[in-house]
Design brief:
mainly alpha; 0% strand; 82 residues; 4 helices
Length: 82
């Protein structure tokens, strides 16, 4: 496996992770996931500056979960607002 992380740095990282409690690991993963989602949404917003938050959310769903689900979600939300 290719890695740009120096082996000693990777060893230290893994050692720190192993010392974390389950709750700390979970909290860290939640933080990383939140960061990844936010960066993804920011990229979409930069690429599509005219979209409102609702449309950005739907485009994000499409990119993450596929067009079919995004279409179904759009239809569901439209029905709920009627």
């Amino acid at each position: 496996m290719l890695s740009d992380t120096h082996p000693e740095a990777e060893r230290v990282q893994l050692d720190l992770i192993r010392k974390m409690t389950i709750a700390q690991r979970l909290a860290r993963n939640v933080e990383w996931t939140r960061l990844a989602v936010n960066l993804s949404r920011q990229g979409i917003a930069r690429a599509h500056p005219g979209l409102d938050d609702h449309e950005l959310d739907l485009l994000w769903v499409e990119q993450q979960y596929g067009r079919d689900l995004a279409i179904r979600l759009r239809e569901y939300l439209k029905e709920q607002s009627s």
